[in-house]
Design goal:
Layout: H1 8-13, E1 19-21, H2 24-32, E2 34-40, E3 46-54, H3 57-68, E4 73-77, E5 100-104, H4 113-128, E6 135-139, E7 150-151, E8 155-156, E9 172-177
Parallel strand pairs: 1-4
Antiparallel strand pairs: 2-3, 4-5, 5-9, 6-7, 6-9, 7-8
Bound molecules: zinc ion.
The site of zinc ion has 4 residues, from strand 5.
């Protein structure tokens, strides 16, 4: 886990136009530059607070650049809802590592033409700027957005995930940024 200094980008990020949050706690955590894991019981109810980690400078810089793009973004999660491990695996979640973000796909169930345009604009921006911003993974599971998938070392599009695009990414773009 990154436990280094907090990027100044993070403190100012939440004030930028165009950013909204599904989870108010994520807003406060991003503002503080630190994230605290929520401990859940086996039924998924929150029963306490776990360890606190630092949001990496790379994630703060990426989100700051996104805020400057003019694309309105709703943040589904910085850490909210995520456990230590990627669901169904023993791999540590990039959200816990402070280098992951989930960006909402607008009206994923029934998008209007404007929603589709917005979602494609967000996907295209992420994919186009992936190397400059140190994005190592973009995961999205929607037919009209699948071309924007990216997995560093494996390429883009559906081929980026040879075993299939991970389930559960129908309503958001998952972004992983480089380790500090
Ligand atoms: Zn995610």
């Amino acid at each position: 886990m990154y436990t280094g200094p907090i990027s100044p980008d993070c403190a100012t990020l939440v004030e930028r136009a165009g950013f909204t949050f599904s989870n108010p706690n994520d807003r406060e955590q991003l503002r503080s530059g630190r994230i605290t894991r929520v401990i859940k019981d086996s039924a998924g109810s929150a029963i306490g607070q776990g360890e606190t980690y630092t949001i990496t400078p790379q994630l703060c810089a990426m989100l700051n650049a996104l805020a400057s793009s003019g694309i309105p973004v709703n943040m589904n999660s910085i850490i909210g809802g995520h456990d230590i491990h990627v669901a169904g695996t023993s791999r540590t979640s990039p959200h816990i590592q402070g280098r992951g973000a989930d960006l909402e796909i607008r009206n994923w169930r029934n998008p209007s033409a404007a929603d589709t345009e917005h979602n494609r604009r967000l996907g295209a921006w992420l994919h186009t700027n992936r190397e400059r911003l140190g994005i190592t993974q973009i995961i999205v599971n929607q037919p009209y957005l699948n071309e924007f998938n990216y997995n560093e070392g494996k390429g883009s599009g559906t081929a980026a995930f040879p075993n299939g695009i991970p389930a559960g990414h129908h309503n958001h773009f998952h972004i992983t940024t480089r380790r500090p």
